[in-house]
Amino acid sequence: MYYFIVNPSSSSGKGMKTWQTVEHLLRSEHVPYHVFFTSRKKQGEELAHMISSRHAPCTIVAVGGDGTANEVISGLTNYSQIQFGYIPSGSGNDLAAGLNLKSSPSAALQAILHPKKVLPVTVGCTHTPEKTYHFIVSSGIGFDAAVCHEAVNSSFKKLLNHFGLGKLTYLGIALKQLILLHSTPVSMVLDDRRQFEFDDVFFIAAMNLKYEGGGFKFCPEADPSDDYLDLCLVEKMSKLRILRLLPTAFRGEHVKFDGVHIYRCKKAVIRTASPLAVHTDGEKAGFQRLVTIALGQEKLPFIVA
Ligand SMILES: Nc1ncnc2c1ncn2[C@@H]1O[C@H](COP(=O)(O)OP(=O)(O)OP(=O)(O)O)[C@@H](O)[C@H]1O
């Protein structure tokens, strides 16, 4: 049985149109399915938990943006008994880009109905003193997270989505956030043994996939099935230099800049001198001075082709 969890309001209403296309195809192929629509935050997580604990074995499909995929994945249990599918209809769509998923709803659905490749994907966990959050794309602290915090309720995002340009939201807000940008001392321990101290850091992005923020290829070598997180740490530099760096990050060429460091680890403990914004898959995870970002143990069977 196929269970669909649909965020109708993703990408400013595009989610409903995407679902209508998908439903038409399901009916024309006489595929048995159940559909649930989310109407508020966190409902995707609750639905995913209910379906995976009561109805496995089954295929669970999220229809929406990266935030919806994040909620559904956060709620899933019984990984060995389910297959996860994703039909992108969001603003940024970094998850689809990172896994090379089909972007058209009909092609994405065909891949889910007739899977040729199911990738065992490791899900990440960001532990804060209050709560543990999950992520599949990335989790970050500092500048990139401040951009995500603003993008979540942005009317600019709604406007750009209206013209099919939602991806540019993050770049636009990033340019604005540059004005507010500040750095902080950071101490970081990787895998309980490699210790680093930095005087001034703008942000750290822990990447399971290559892209975040609507296409910034912060960790060009990130691979969701390799059991490692790739970290991109950007030290303080002039704002003019950041302005030059950001566009190169779309091609992953920012790694050549002095002050940009790439690490690979299974666990990162990050302490900052002042509280900084934290995100998981673009969703808010508060302001924190201490986070532990790590990969989980289990692998989620993710239909990728
Ligand atoms: N019916 C709803 N109305 C408003 N918000 C919803 C609804 N259902 C879910 N949400 C919330 O909307 C948030 C954003 O949704 P989603 O990520 O799918 O779309 P998006 O923001 O357009 O895309 P992206 O994350 O790729 O930028 C999710 O965190 C989810 O909790």
Automatic annotation (TrEMBL):
Name the keywords, alphabetized. Answer: ATP-binding, Kinase, Lipid biosynthesis, Lipid metabolism, Nucleotide-binding, Phospholipid biosynthesis, Phospholipid metabolism, Transferase
What residue stretches are annotated with the DAGKc domain?
A: 1-130
Q: Which SUPFAM superfamilies match?
A: NAD kinase/diacylglycerol kinase-like
Annotated signal peptide: none
Q: Which GO terms describe its molecular function?
A: kinase activity
Q: Which InterPro entries match?
A: ATP-NAD_kinase_N, Diacylglycerol/lipid_kinase, Diacylglycerol_kinase_cat_dom, Lipid_Phosphate_FormReg, NAD/diacylglycerol_kinase_sf, YegS/DAGK_C
Q: Which co-factors does it depend on?
A: Mg(2+)
Give the top-rank taxon of the lineage listed in the UniProt record for this protein: Bacteria
PROSITE patterns, from UniProt? DAGK
Q: Which family does it belong to?
A: Belongs to the diacylglycerol/lipid kinase family.
Q: Which PANTHER family match?
A: SPHINGOSINE KINASE, SPHINGOSINE KINASE RELATED PROTEIN
Write down what this protein is called. Diacylglycerol kinase family lipid kinase
Q: What species is this protein from?
A: Muricoprocola aceti
